[in-house]
Amino acid sequence: MSRLEIRHWAGFAQRPFLAPERVRAYQDARIRRLIHRAFHNVAFYRRRFEEAGIRPEEIRGGADLQRLPILTKADLRMCRDGEMLARGVDEKSCIAEISSGTTGEPVRFVRTRGEEYALFAHRLRAQVLSGLRPWDVRMKIGSRPVRTLPHRLGLFRCDAVSDGQPHTRILAELEGKRFDVLSAMPGILDILLPLLSESKLRSRRLRRVFCGAELLSPATRRRLKETLGCPVVDFYGATEVNLIAWECVRCGLYHTCDDAVFAEVVTEDGRLAGAGEQGRLVLTALHSFAMPLIRYEIGDVVRRPAKSAACRIGFGTIDEIVGRLADHLPLPDGQWLGPCRLIEVAQSIDGVRRFRILQPTPVSVVIEVQREKEFGEEQAGRLRAGFEKLLPAEVRVEIREVDDIPLTARGKLRIVEAWRGGEDGVTSGVRIS
Predict the structure, then answer these.
(1) What value does the mean pLDDT take over residues 255-265?
(2) What is the mean pLDDT of residues 306-322?
(3) Which secondary-structure segment (H or E) carries 423?
(4) Digit-coded pLDDT (tens) for 267-295
(5) Hey, how many other C-beta atoms are within 10 angstroms of the C-beta on 18?
(6) Do the beta carbons of residue 384 and residue 397 sit within 8 Å?
(7) Are 350 and 375 in contact (CB under 8 A)?
(8) DSSP string of 142-204?
(9) What is the CATH number assigned to the segment(s) 3-117+238-325?
(10) Domain assignments of the chain as residue spans, ordered by start
(11) What share of the chain has pLDDT > 90, as a percent?
């Protein structure tokens, strides 16, 4: 183990509480090592550096990363087999994962087992900072988690119920198990909410609900908190890097996991977003050496806070996860409308059980509604009016009632399916509303 790695784990628990300048110094050291290793061991990055006319020693830290081009999923898909892997890495002994592909561009990522465990540790630390205790039992709705050393020692125990079964069966299994923290994607919890309101779980003293993998809307958060009577904490991550940021229970902002990723928020003109501005999220993975990800654009839009909040955690902050760029609706005037405001309108209408926003063309939007009893003509009219207020006058809005809105194969609720005119229409010259 290198001296840098020893320093990382020696200061792991206390690093979120360091002053920002000390965190930046740590990031700069990791970035220098990552750049050196990528240039000398990865064919793709050697070629990219040479094409840009940059020597690795010229990148001294995070402030110099903007000299490098942004890495996209399209770049990764065009790579030849093995071109992104570091020399000497045995891919057969690594862990491979496929990104969810909600942008239409699923990509395969490779990590060593050591890198995977390091990322797991960063997520676990964020959960502890969010109120998880070592003796708490977490219940996950989804795939069964990998058992690690803390689990084998009886700490941070975690169980799971499969999400690939009828919802009544999921609830029955939850009622038959004892746990302190419930962990699931917001879409699944939203589906279970009517059942949860009548279940035995209401009488339990759950300590936390942990959400992730999907956009958590204010309405879903409020209903979960009212139904289960405990705080709801959101974790923001991606397959490529695991944890990106987590919602702070003290200041209410999302803290970026600065000793795992170096996060840049880039505006449409290529500069770094300032206070109160939003832009595309670009990440450099500080613990990925088998398959380095340097200035990687994951396809999400986030916003920097207008002003920083007083908090004992010194990591950087974002105050809103606007959503995937692929879920933004392109408008006839060239601007793009994010999904959050549309979702808030739909969730404010009584009788809307679930919904999906479809955009067949740039001038038409269809809202599919899985209704409850109280949804009628008045509610449909209010829903249409709410959408028409956000959309340009030339965009036609249609309300369509459906019997069911299915989840994706990965158990996610795909709320927005936006129109795309071409493969590069997602990112070319957009102005984000």
Answers:
(1) 96
(2) 88
(3) none
(4) 888 899 999 998 989 999 999 999 999 99
(5) 18
(6) yes
(7) yes
(8) SSPPPP-HHHHTTSS-EEEE-SSS-HHHHHHHHHTS--SEEEE-HHHHHHHHHHHTTSGGGGS
(9) 3.40.50.12780
(10) 3-117+238-325, 328-432
(11) 36
